[in-house]
């Protein structure tokens, strides 16, 4: 019996029933077969040697793709768990997924892992790789699986969840075995351990089982794995560069922000230099939104529980919200429940609903720099990149369905324009579709997803699907940028929402005076100001473009007798809007120049006797080795004022 296989280019081939992905890859070409690590069969991922028994659309997953690296890293996690269980008798194992750029596995062990332990585990992994053990897929009935994993409580809990319907509703669980090591897993995996070519264990840390502080603390080992030693070496070099650019380190060195322990985790204070940087970003945002048809609004930080019930946040997002506050009670009267806002959207909806609306007012674009609070788990907090309090450049657009396609196209153009103004040039997108927990009608979800896909195609923006990753109230586009060292960051988000206008009974009057529901677009362009600053610090390594630099020019007098002229030069620059520091410290000129360079100031002016006499300056621009001497002061001021001008 034969089956028909449709390849990505649309061509079709006939194969015998039970053909494997490896056989198909070999039929296409030996180079493809050598690079293959898995295969997609319709929408499912298969091991290379798993039989295909039906007509299907098939594509070969190669090792140098993100999907291929996911398979490599998942396999590396199994090999690491195998090594740990062999080396630490009596230890238990929990879960070990592939993650961005790497993998981890959680273990129940008697003592935390040391760096020496990681080195020994890595050596043991190398032995397992050398043994070239095949990964073998199998299935076990629930009862048998519970018996097999009787000594491993975390595995038993996973199996019991499957049995109760919390996981995949099935009478069986899938497993993978290599040698004596057996793990619960859906796969796919490499054909054998010998296909793991390059890996490194990075660090260990404590981690609660399933992220719950009330459950046992485990020991997590993080690692990375790549398709070649060259790719691994490139990644390790990127990590070295990233450590030098770490926004927490540079934030301290450049005196931008800090995280006082008295505030609690995930909450930053902004120092004067950081305040200037933040102000420039926010002023740019206000100015650019105003020039593109947005109206600025301001909303409070708390609201009654009723609002969050109507919006669905209490049902779908409560775990991410700060605990309830009970106010306005007393004398036997129960209090009213209030919540700090995790999002701005319900407030903007109330502004729309505050009076009757006509189709002539649409699209109505509301914009706010709104501070929100989300109770992130302490284990995921990371400086400005993952905080508990942050300000979003948040917009909500209310439009007719007829105008939705044009509005999305214009919005994508606007997003990319703004990101380019901040120095980013490489963009990709994810289209996230309906999650398991959602509000609204399925048909409206499908319609919203189609509109978003069409807008991406019209903008010629490369994108990939992220099934089930949408917000509970609508699908979304996430725009990703690449920074100076090649890392991918998610920034802008655009969500189409048919559900909230329904929840809040929003309407507008049409041209024939009937009532219709508007469509709502949620849009955070920079994401959050805090996270965006963190990304900018790391992208530029603290050496911001001149319009963003907290100090744009340092003026240095050669000697005390030149101080008055240095102050005059500083005043001329300040008059033209340049942010200036006149360094009159009792130090050598060389020491002052080094300090200005270390603090990443874009321009340094040095003035001495000849400059005082001739009305000139010496000018050194960042990135230039030599100082330009004898520049007429007016020319220098004009040059620096132009360099300091914000875009748009």
Compact summary:
It contains 20 helices and 35 strands.
Highlighted features:
648 residues; alpha+beta; Ubiquitin-like (UB roll); Threonyl-tRNA Synthetase, Chain A, domain 2; BirA Bifunctional Protein, domain 2; eight-stranded mixed beta sheet; five-stranded mixed beta sheet; 20 helices; 35 strands; 35% helix; globular
Question: How would you sum up this structure, described in words?
Answer:
The chain is of the alpha+beta class and 648 residues long. The protein has 4 domains: 61 residues, Roll (Ubiquitin-like (UB roll)); 176 residues, Threonyl-tRNA Synthetase, Chain A, domain 2; 278 residues, BirA Bifunctional Protein, domain 2 (2-Layer Sandwich); 91 residues, Anticodon-binding domain (Rossmann fold, 3-Layer(aba) Sandwich). The chain has 20 helices and 35 strands. It has an 8-stranded mixed sheet with strand order 18-22-23-30-27-26-24-25, with helices on both faces. A hairpin with a 5-residue loop joins strand 26 and strand 27. Helix 3 packs across helix 4, helix 8 crosses helix 16 and helix 13 packs across helix 14. The radius of gyration is 29 Å and the shape is globular. The N and C termini lie far apart (66 Å).
Radius of gyration: 29 Å
Question: Strands of the largest sheet, in order across it?
Answer: 18-22-23-30-27-26-24-25
The helix content, as a percent range, equals 25-40%
Under the CATH scheme, which architecture of the largest domain would be assigned?
2-Layer Sandwich
The rounded distance between the terminal residues' Cα atoms is: 66 Å
Give the C-level CATH assignment of the largest domain: Alpha Beta
Low-pLDDT stretches: none
Strand content: 25-35%
* Approximate shape: globular
CATH structural fold name of the largest domain: BirA Bifunctional Protein, domain 2
The total of helices stands at: 20
Largest sheet: 8 strands, mixed
Give the number of DSSP strands: 35
Overall mean pLDDT: 92
For the record, the count of structural domains works out to: 4
Find the CATH superfamily of the largest domain.
Bira Bifunctional Protein, Domain 2
SSE class = alpha+beta
